[in-house]
Amino acid sequence: MTIEEKIKNALKPTVESMGFDWWGMEYMPAGRHTLLRVFIEKADGTVNSDETYAVCKQISAILDVEDVISSEFRLEVSSPGMDRLLFTPEQYTRYKGEEVQVRTSMAILGRKRFKGPMSTVTESGIELEVDGEVFEIPFDLIDKANVVPKF
Fold first, then answer.
1. Which of 7, 13, 44, 103 measures 20 to 30 Å from 112, CA to CA?
2. Which own/partner pairs from 122-126 qualify as long-range (CB within 8 Å, at least 24 positions apart)?
């Protein structure tokens, strides 16, 4: 089990028991500058600062007791925001048709960065239209993907 899976398994039940949806997390190990960012939201899509503070206190206590992260780290709890990161196939499906920005771990047809409307979501990946060309991007090659906000 990866450290990311251990963290999620330790924290997700508490977040959900507090009435929030676990949107996802980013774990960025960097020695003393390690960052754990947890994204939460409610069914109506809102989260206020008092709520993020309460969740932060709860999960901070769990991380102290469970000692999942052995080094120093900074914990942030926030809503996914307008430019929300996408973590699960269900989240991708929810934003099908929207413009997304994707960074891959390996080049696909000579590129690693994509930005365009997400036309298809399958069990194994997504399709994006970029500059009139459709790119098939497998989930296992996606390093980071987020919704491009509309203003």
1. 7
2. 123/89, 126/92, 126/100, 126/102
CA pair distance 18, 21, nearest whole angstrom: 9
pTM: 0.90
CA angle 10-78-139, nearest 5°?
70
Cα–Cα distance list, 144 to 38, 44, 102, 139 (Å): 15, 25, 6, 10
pLDDT, one tens digit per residue, over 28-52 is 999 889 999 999 999 888 899 999 9
A 10 A CB-CB count for 131 gives 8
For 132-143, the DSSP string reads: TEEEEEEGGGEE
Residue 112 half-sphere exposure toward CB, CA atoms < 13 A: 8
Nearest to 105 by CA among 94, 118, 114: 114
- The rounded distance, in Å, linking the Cα atoms of 24 and 31 is 22
| Phi, psi angles (nearest 5°) of residue 80 | -65, -20
Phi, psi at 63, each rounded to 5°: -65, -35
